Amino acid sequence: MDAVFLARMQFAANITFHILFPSISIALGWVLLFFRLKHLRATDPQQKLDWLRAYRLWTKVFALTFALGVVSGVTMSFQFGTNWPGYMERVGNIAGPLLSYEVLTAFFLEAGFLGVMLFGHRRVGEMVHLGATFLVAFGTLMSAFWILALNSWMQTPAGYEIVNGQFHARSWLEIIFNPSFPYRLVHMMLASALTCAFLLIGISAWQLLKGVATDSASRVLRTGLVFAALAAPAQMMAGDLHGLNTLKHQPQKIAAMEGIWETTRGAPLLLFAIPDDAARTNHFEVAVPKLASLILRHDADGELKGLNEFPSAHPPVFAVFWCFRIMVGMGILMLLVSWVGLWRHWRDGWDFSRMPRPMLWLFAGMTFAGWVATIAGWYVTEIGRQPFIVSGLIRTADVASRVPSSSIAVTFAIYVAVYLALLAAYVGVLKYMAETADKKPYANVKVSPAGEPQQYQRRGEFA
Amino acid sequence: MTSMSFDELLPLIFIGLMGVSLLVYVVSDGYDLGVGMLMHRATPEERDTMVASIGPFWDANETWLVLGVGLLLVAFPKAHGLVLSELYLPTALMLVGLILRGAAFDFRVKAKAGRKAMWDRLFIAGSMLASVCQGWMLGRYISGFGEGWNYPVFAGAIAVALPMAYALLGATWLVMKTDGPLQDKAVEWSKIAWPPMVLGLILISMATPWISETVRERWFTLPAMIAVASIPVTAGIALVTVRVLLGSLAVRGGLCWLPFALLVLVFFLSFLGLSYSIYPFVVIDKLTVWEAASSPDSLKVILIGVCVTLPVIVAYTAFSYRVFRGKTIKLDYA
């Protein structure tokens, strides 16, 4: 196999594995802050303990998630250079500062305060500890800000000039706030919110199903449902706006997402089709007339550009078309489940013991729904950028590594094996932690109304 | 030397920043990799304490590697391409080691109790793999990626010596951070790791002048020789002091921090010596700092960020070490 293909597969495997963890931790950091504040402000001792238990369990989830995000992120920082050396040689003047700012303002901030947040409570005051938790959550946000600025710049480059084939910065404001950046940032933040919300929902529902839940799990489940019910419709709106932005700046990506080969007025929305890249047509179409034009142009007879307008400069269609449908399908499912779940919960008088078991099984089954949607969405946007690495300006094949393909193949195989094993371990440990969270002895946890430090004197498992 | 313009000076500032980042990485991740490797000689309870001693820090330690490699990538893209293409496989293996280690670190206490031993083994194996790969990479780098039978042998020797240096650093870290029987063990481990570390240092010191004419002239020409001789002499004194301390009772009392501090000094001096040898090259005899540097404009933008953030990073790193100062106690999530 050729080196470019292997380099792409290896990089794709790594970023796919990596994004799983930030997509949880970006939002989970803020959720932890919320749990902590609820714990501190609760006056009822039982409530206080419930929120503390929630905080403890989910801090462990955060620690594990964060660690996996860090180690896969370190790998990524090397792979920018090893897989795409030509990329940095040509756009290093723009990508370099953005990546440096991410390390300087985000990575160090997160890593520096994570220790205090996880293990420092008995050594620092409540306010300092809250501050550390805030800074870790803020750090994950900053990290997303810088890396999405760079990613968006690759999609919709702005504020640059090219001198002798090298890119130079003309305006940093235009580079950072390039046309697709605000949309991508909001879309990703909401994706993280949904991913985290369904993790909260799924794991708490699992605890209820297994009969190991306490009131703490109910509180977390309710938090997750409310969080998801708010984030899901917001995400639909944000996604729609992002799509309109893509239509303006990367029409070939929209054409691939909708499977439109010829420029059409009143383009139909394809519910099902098998796009055929070789024959340049779709098979087995199931379509709703004029709906694509209506959604994208807000006009039933609006014109949408077809793929044939972009010869050898449009992305592979099948993957983009189907990943888009998976993402949207998961989005709709998440919206329905969160709304129906919340409505049912209200009907039950806010009592989960009356929630029907099939509903709880549905919740548990959707624990990782956010992962599926997030990854499908990233595939749409990243495969949708091909065959370019910087949209319309630099082709991916021109900047790939000159390392022999056998070396790439060997390391690719090792990475995939390690990632799959770690993913299995991660899911297994989440399940184990959920099932044992409330079995740990809490008898010696003294809850005082004022939240004095003595309640943290418990010596339990560590690290 | 004639006066340099600021634009000519920028690559030098950046090679300095990159060097310092990598030095901080080697020292800080060095001690925690060392602790990881030493775990195979410890009991399960001791392992918990050892992990607890590095728990709050390892994450930030690894960030210095990201910064160092990031600066290489950003400020010297040509050197980055050359170095990482040469070191493609050891880099990938080192990353696998770091992944296993970082993951095992968290999994070992969160997975079922029966699996803990397996995660411990992965933690130890990952620490070893990463250290050995880093040693090999250092050996290949400072010998200019030369071809011939002697070069791999040299890199192989460094691939053994660097893990020993890390083990010594880790053992003296434990001498400082623990007490009782574990501290006694750590003193013994330090004694075992001392000779190979010293041997490795001597090997590295002799290799660069042996390979490169420029380096040889720089070290062995009077009068500069007298001035720069202070580097190896000071390092030698520090190393001997470490060995003497390890044999004394003081190291179990108030001076428990001194061996670790002296070793940090040795690493710093080695870094100074290496920089003096290599300057002005990024890759010995192949690529100078100025040939490899990217445009001054983007370097200036990064420099502003560095000037603003680095003091803050240093401040909160110091804060974190202050919070977790003293002998290690069990870590609790709270």
Structural commentary:
Chain A contains 14 helices and 8 strands. Chain A is mainly alpha-helical. Chain A has one domain. In chain A, α4 runs antiparallel to α5, α8 packs across α9 and α9 packs across α11. Chain B has 334 residues and is mainly α. Chain B has a single domain, classed as Formate dehydrogenase/DMSO reductase fold (Up-down Bundle), CATH 1.20.1630. In chain B, a hairpin with a 3-residue loop joins β1 and β2. In chain B, α1 runs antiparallel to α3 and α3 packs across α4. The mean pLDDT of chain B is 85. Classes of the chains: A mainly alpha (463), B mainly alpha (334). The interface between A and B is large, with 77 and 69 residues.
**Structural class of chain A, please?**
mainly alpha
Assign an overall shape of chain A: globular
Biggest sheet descriptor of chain A: 2 strands, antiparallel
- The tally of structural domains of chain A comes to 1
Percent in helix of chain B: over 70%
**SS summary, helix count of chain B:** 14
Chain pair forming the biggest interface: A-B, 77 and 69 residues
- The strands making up the biggest β-sheet of chain B line up spatially as 1-2
Residue share in β-strands of chain A: 5-15%
Average of the residue pLDDT scores of chain B: 85
CATH architecture of chain B: Up-down Bundle
